[in-house]
Design brief:
Largest sheet: 7 strands, parallel
Strand content: 5-15%
Shape: globular
Order of helices and strands: HHHHHHEHEHEHEHEHEHEHHH
CATH superfamily of the largest domain: Metal-dependent hydrolases
Number of domains: 2
CATH topology of the largest domain: TIM Barrel
CATH class of the largest domain: Alpha Beta
CATH architecture of the largest domain: Alpha-Beta Barrel
Radius of gyration: 21 Å
Strand order of the largest sheet: 1-2-3-4-5-6-7
Number of helices: 15
Length: 359
C-alpha cells in the first residue's frame, strides 16, 4: 500500500463506524500532509523513518505510514477491516438493490473531503451513480454555493467524469450534477432558477426557522415540493435524535398535505440515512407510503466513510415495508434521469402515478 492510501482507508473505516471526529481528523490530516510531498521526499522519510518530523504526523499515523511504505498492510488497518460490521443488516436485501446516492456533500460546502475523493469512494463502494449536492448560498454556516461557485463546481465535475472514464477501473459510475437547495421562508428556492433547470437532481430541504407554526411550515413545504425543478424533499422534519449536535424536535406541519403534494407533483420523499436524523420517523414513512409517494434512500454523507451508511436507511424502509420499486435510488440511471428530466411536470407526475399503480 501507499502511505496516503493507507491513512485515508483508516479514516474511511473510522468514519463508517462513527468514531470520534478528532480520531478521523488525525488520519485525514496526516494523509493530506503526505499527499503534498514529492516522491523523493516520501522515499527519504521511509528510508529514515522520519515521519514524525512532519507537523501533523504523530506516533499512530506514523506507524501506519511506515508499514505501508514498507509494502505491508498496517496492523491497525487490518484490525479495522476485520472489526467492520454490516450496517443495517435488517435491510440488507434492500441495500443490495440500491444503485445510487442522491444526497452527498464535499468540502466545497460543509463536507470534510474533496469531491474527487467522495466520487472515487462512491465508485469503490459499487455505486452505479452518485450525486454531489452541496448546499446553496443562504446556508452561510455551511459555506453554501453561489451560482458562480456552483457553475465552477460543475466544470470540475465534468473534468472528473472524463478522468474517471479514462482510467482502467472495471466498474463504471455515472456522476450526476445536483444541489441541496435551501427552502426559503416563502417556499421559494435558494438558487438561480435557470441553473436549477440544468442540474440532474435537486434535493430541497429546510435548514432555518424550523420551529415556525404548522400552517407556515406546511405552506412553505408544499410550495417547494410543487416546484418543477425539485426531485427530492430532504430530511423533512429536520429532527435530530442523537449525536454531537444534541437533539432537536420535529418541525410541525400537515404531513398529509405535504406528502400529497409530493405525490401529485412528482417529488420523492427522502429517507435520510444519517443516524442522528433518522428522518422521516416511521409513522410519517407509513403515511407517505399509504398516500402513494416515491422515496429516495440517501446517505447525506459529509465524509467518505459515511457513503457506506445506506444500510441505515434501508433498514428503516424495510421495517415499514416500502417496496423496492417505490424507491427511486433502486432504479437504473436511465430510468431515474428520464423521470427527473421529463419534458413537463405533468409527464413527471404521470410517471410517478404509473410507478405507484405498478406496485
Amino acid at each position: 500500500m501507499e502511505p496516503v492510501a493507507a491513512l485515508r482507508e483508516v479514516a474511511f473505516w473510522l468514519e463508517r463506524s462513527r468514531a470520534e471526529t478528532r480520531r478521523v481528523k488525525a488520519y485525514r490530516t496526516a494523509a493530506d500532509v503526505l499527499a503534498a510531498l514529492d516522491p523523493d521526499r516520501l522515499a527519504e522519510l521511509a528510508r529514515t523513518d522520519g515521519w514524525t518530523t512532519l507537523r501533523g504526523i504523530g506516533p499512530k499515523t506514523s506507524a501506519v505510514a511506515a508499514a505501508a511504505a514498507a509494502g505491508e498492510v498496517p496492523e491497525y488497518l487490518v484490525g479495522l477491516r476485520a472489526a467492520a460490521q454490516p450496517i443495517g443488516p435488517e435491510g440488507s436485501e434492500l441495500t443490495e438493490l440500491l444503485r445510487g446516492d442522491l444526497h452527498t456533500h464535499s468540502n466545497w460546502s460543509d463536507g470534510g473531503s474533496p469531491l474527487e475523493e467522495m466520487a472515487y469512494t462512491a465508485r469503490a463502494l459499487g455505486r452505479e451513480y452518485w450525486v454531489l449536492t452541496d448546499h446553496s448560498p443562504r446556508l452561510t454556516v455551511a459555506n453554501g454555493l453561489t451560482a458562480e461557485r456552483l457553475r465552477a463546481q460543475l466544470a470540475v465535475l465534468e473534468n472528473l467524469r472524463l478522468e474517471m472514464a479514462a482510467d482502467d477501473d472495471d466498474h463504471e459510475m455515472r456522476i450526476l450534477s445536483g444541489i441541496e437547495v435551501d427552502i426559503l421562508d416563502d417556499g421559494s428556492l435558494d438558487q438561480d432558477p435557470e441553473l436549477l433547470d440544468e442540474l440532474d437532481i435537486v434535493v430541497a430541504s429546510i435548514h432555518s426557522h424550523l420551529r415556525a407554526d404548522s400552517a407556515t411550515m406546511t405552506a412553505r413545504m408544499v410550495a417547494a415540493v410543487s416546484h418543477p425543478s425539485v426531485d427530492v424533499l430532504g430530511h423533512c422534519t429536520g429532527r435530530l435524535v442523537e449525536g454531537g449536535r444534541g437533539t432537536r424536535p420535529e418541525s410541525t406541519f400537515d404531513a398529509r398535505a405535504v406528502f400529497e403534494a409530493c405525490r401529485d407533483h412528482g417529488t420523492a420523499v427522502e429517507i435520510n440515512s444519517r443516524p442522528e436524523r433518522q428522518d422521516p420517523p416511521e409513522r410519517l414513512m407509513e403515511l407517505a407510503l399509504e398516500l402513494g409517494c416515491l422515496f429516495s434512500i440517501d446517505t447525506d454523507a459529509h465524509a467518505p466513510g459515511q457513503l457506506d451508511w445506506l444500510g441505515y436507511g434501508s433498514a428503516r424502509a424495510a421495517a415499514v415495508g416500502i417496496p423496492a420499486d417505490r424507491i427511486i435510488t433502486t432504479w437504473p440511471v436511465e430510468r431515474l434521469l428520464e423521470w427527473t428530466a421529463s419534458g413537463t411536470r405533468d409527464e413527471k407526475v404521470a410517471k410517478n402515478r404509473q410507478s405507484a399503480r405498478e406496485m
